[in-house]
Specification:
2 copies of one chain form a homodimer. Helix content of chain A is 47%, strand content 14%. By secondary structure, chain A is of the alpha/beta class.
Chain lengths: 310, 310
């Protein structure tokens, strides 16, 4: 629309994405699309994985311009390096690349946990002349891998940046602008707030889904029990199909906040069990009504904030 | 296809659905569609609710042929009466209608819990000359009301019938044929097996979803916490938007089986919490991998069994 105010163009020369999976790949896709539309100016988008699998196809499909399997080598002239790897792989990669980064380069990530990442970046990047701006795009699906990447994954979705007081403002603005180009809404938040909110709304639900599916599958009937499960169970348990390694990393990295959220949940669940034992229908329906009102509110809000992931 | 064997036509004169909500309404829709295609022979499909709201629109939209707000009055000449009401409303309705049913009439229901329904039917219908065949279509959505009804709701879905040794075979065959006409796959199962399986795959997930959403909404941030929830949480919590009254009834009616399933789940969740405390990544990933394998199996099975509810 002609009335849309002109926004600043995201400009960089060499953008390297280490760990070209669903999130890294979708970031590349979205930036390629923005570039084709003249909305950003990026000279080269580079994908880096340890194995060639996926990289070749990604180049062929126009997701990336170049690829490389050596992280240290590929960051040498990088202006921006986005780490798209699982949270616990960030530290070993930082150790590999830190001495190869050029001064002024910006390092960011896409991890679902921020305290550990900030600690690692602070320890390994301080006094290297490199800037770091941790970020977390709240988007994804139970699918994984660059083959599931899509340019619209972040459209209308939220990206949380957790810069510190010491962060270089220009570096923060660059990462913010990069995510703006994907169509995402950006929020800046403290590290501890991020980790607590995500423990509650993402990590705990994943833990419950993994746990329930495993409990059911371990019963006498085994997988047969799922024969009579319906669409409600399908939705509820979808996140239990998520990548085990990625979630292993998230839970170990955000242990304390997850346990805190889990204990709050368990206390309420114990109360609910007591209501059941007591045949206390009034208390049950009170909880269900409150939950339904909150869930209906969430749905409305969710539908008003951009496209869904399909 | 011409090679399809000719199946027996479902034939009845007067079919009354008491409680024309999502399930009752969708049953009516599906039967109307089958009737229009010449697959069933039903003289009159009658909808009965206490209030006129919905009934008039349902008639106008061709969902039902007639409607009535007086259950006792409307069952007088009925050949089949399907109770589409919440589980705890079945008993009071049976008390209302039992002396008005004609000998040979068949009473069925759509309740998600069967022991209580069987107990009520056995107590109230024995020696009345009326047959009863409890049934449970495993289909639905977080939506409710006849306005959400759709003819395809049961297509490819499963319907569990729980007849007893004393059930009249012709009556069982009639209810089976009725559900076959909706495109559903029918299973016959014992009452206790039904209630245990449903407690695990449906009732417990609903309890967890209601409980988690309520826990989150009750925190300091209140509904604001949902601002940063993503598609995974959306799927996981969808069933928390289900009808509180209906679920209140289900939980009270299937208390023992639900508590049994909940306790199994809680024991496993406690172990998972200990793995977290112990930073025992190996055990965590083992659980997640098992869960993912089971969930992937379920998804494959689910996709191969007919249409989804959308």
């Amino acid at each position: 629309m002609s009335s849309t105010p002109k926004t600043e163009v995201f400009k960089t020369e060499r953008l390297v994405i280490i760990g070209l999976g669903l999130i890294g790949g979708s970031l590349a896709c979205a930036l390629q699309k923005a570039r084709a539309a003249g909305e950003v100016s990026i000279k080269t988008i580079v994908g880096c994985n340890r194995s060639l699998e996926g990289l070749k196809a990604a180049k062929q499909n126009g997701v990336i311009d170049e690829f490389c399997t050596d992280a240290a080598e590929t960051v040498k002239d990088a202006d921006i390096v986005v780490l798209g790897v699982p949270v616990l792989s960030i530290r070993p990669i930082l150790e590999q690349i830190r001495s190869h980064l050029k001064p002024g380069a910006i390092v960011s990530d896409v991890g679902s946990v921020k305290q550990l990442v900030v600690d690692d970046m602070t320890e390994l990047l301080t006094n290297t002349g490199v800037h770091w701006v941790p970020a977390h795009p709240i988007a994804g699906s139970e699918q994984s891998g660059v083959s599931a990447a899509q340019p619209g994954l972040f459209k209308g979705r939220k990206v949380i940046l957790t810069p510190s007081e010491n962060s270089e403002p220009r570096a923060v603005a660059q990462i913010d602008a990069m995510w703006r180009a994907t169509g995402a809404e950006r929020f800046h938040m403290s590290v501890s707030e991020h980790d607590r909110v995500l423990a509650a709304t993402s990590h705990l639900p994943h833990l419950l889904a993994f746990s329930l599916v495993d409990t059911l599958a371990s019963q006498e009937r085994g997988w047969d029990v799922f024969k009579f499960a319906a669409g409600g169970f399908r939705d509820f348990s979808r996140i239990a199909a998520s990548d085990p390694k990625m979630w292993h990393d998230i839970f170990l990295s955000n242990r304390e906040a997850v346990i805190e959220a889990l204990d709050l949940f368990s206390a309420d669940l114990t109360n609910l069990r007591q209501h059941l034992l007591d045949e206390d229908g009034e208390s049950l329906i009170e909880v269900f009504k409150r939950a339904k009102a909150a869930r209906d509110h969430f749905e409305e809000q969710f539908q008003n904030t951009g496209s869904d992931i399909e």
